[in-house]
Design a protein that fits this description.
Largest sheet: 6 strands, antiparallel, barrel
Order of helices and strands: HEEEEEEEHHEEEEEHEEEEEEEEEEEH
Distance between the termini: 107 Å
Shape: rod-shaped
Number of helices: 5
Number of strands: 23
CATH superfamily of the largest domain: Efflux pump adaptor protein, beta barrel domain
């Protein structure tokens, strides 16, 4: 039977629709699978251990003499001679005569004073004899009452006073003679000289500027946080030979040198300009043999701190947002805590943390971590402490 063309096309379309429907209905359905877990974030961490530590504090200052004075003439006269070491920068011993004023006038005054003492003693002896004679005469008269003037008691007292005055004049003359030889009461160095041989000086004239070379001191500014690490209350004053140990370091002729001393005192108030405390350390020559004390040298000081419990040393990079620390616990979960920062520098920070067993400190990628998240910790080695001179750089 011959079908019209339109029926042929309708048959073809119907067969195609049946095939398409069969394909859709008979195709296999996909089996649902769980989505893969994202990989854990790798976080660098270091082991955290709380210990009792004494944290050194670093400061800086300039070495200055403990004692510095002007040598001043107490008597007038011409400078007869000066010592060979009476030059700027020279050393001298305690009591050494550096300047000699012409003593001739004072030697003559001493001789005259001795003569007056002899005269006064002779007058006293005469008065004592006269007084004894008067007492005998009055006794021979048989009268129990005697007149003080008759017994020469006022004359005797005047003679005794005359001896005392003459002896005082002699002592004054001897003191003036001794003052013609001028020196310092301590061993030291001469900073400047103001007179020389042949020059006339009056009482009060400055002869030289000298300082004690046996002891120097350095004034060390400290912040409130640094004072908290030290055992140095305001008004602190150490007993002789005691005090908080200090090591000062300075460069002399290109060579780093070191001296040991002690904090002798603290100043009684804060600096009103800088709001800083100031401790004063003394460095003695006897404690640093063969190490000359260089006045005016700029030095860095390391002050021994007091023992503090539960201190954790961490890399400086572990501090997040200034005072926050990210901890990774024993189950590799993140916890964010606030740190009590005791001290820090460019490499390290010393803090107090609320640690739990198994806690580690994250040293990087803190901005990507949220509390409670699980991470993959990568343990790093804790870097070594720098040398003391470098540790002072950037300390807070």
């Amino acid at each position: 039977m011959h079908l019209p063309d339109r029926f042929k096309w309708l048959l073809i379309l119907g067969c195609g629709a049946l095939v398409a429907a069969a394909i859709v209905l008979l195709q296999p359905k996909p089996t649902p699978r769980p989505a893969p877990e994202p990989p854990l974030v790798r976080v660098p961490v270091v082991e955290a251990a709380a210990q009792t530590q004494a944290l050194a504090v670093y400061s800086q200052g300039t070495l200055t003499p403990l004692r510095e004075i002007d040598l001043v003439a107490e008597v007038a006269g011409r400078v007869q001679s000066v010592a060979d070491n009476f030059v700027a920068g020279a050393f001298f011993e305690a009591g050494e005569a550096l300047v000699q004023i012409d003593p001739a006038n004072y030697q003559l005054a001493t001789i005259r004073a001795k003569a007056r003492v002899a005269e006064a003693e002779q007058l006293l002896a005469t008065e004592k004899g006269r007084a004894r004679q008067a007492r005998r005469e009055w006794r021979d008269l048989g009268n129990a009452e005697a007149n003080a003037l008759f017994l020469r008691e006022p004359q005797l007292k005047a003679a005794e006073a005359g001896v005392a005055a003459a002896q005082a004049d002699l002592r004054q003359a001897e003191l003036d003679l001794a003052k013609t030889a001028i020196g310092a009461p301590f061993a030291g160095r001469i900073r400047d000289i103001h007179v020389n041989r042949g020059q006339y000086v009056a009482p009060g004239s400055k002869l030289a500027r000298v300082f004690d070379s046996e002891v120097v001191e350095v004034r060390l500014p400290l912040t409130d946080g640094q004072i908290a690490l030290l055992d140095l209350p305001l008004g602190y004053r150490a007993a002789p030979g005691e005090g908080t140990p200090v090591v000062v370091r300075g460069t002399v002729a290109g060579e780093l040198r070191e001296w040991r001393g002690r904090v002798s005192r603290t100043e009684a108030s804060l600096d009103t300009q800088t709001r800083m405390y100031h401790a004063v350390a003394e460095i003695r020559k006897q404690d640093n043999p063969d190490k000359p004390l260089v006045v005016g040298l700029f030095v860095r000081a390391e002050i021994a701190g007091r023992a503090i419990e539960n201190v954790v040393q961490i890399p400086r990079t572990a501090l997040y947002k200034d005072r926050q620390v990210v901890l990774v616990d024993a189950t590799n979960q993140v916890r964010v805590v606030r740190a009590d920062v005791l001290k820090s520098n460019a490499q390290f920070a010393w803090v107090r943390l609320p640690l739990e067993a198994g806690d580690r400190v994250a040293t990087g990628r803190q901005g990507y971590l949220k509390p409670g998240a699980r991470v993959e910790p990568v343990v790093e080695d804790v870097p070594e402490l720098p040398v003391p001179a470098a540790a002072a750089e950037g300390e807070a």
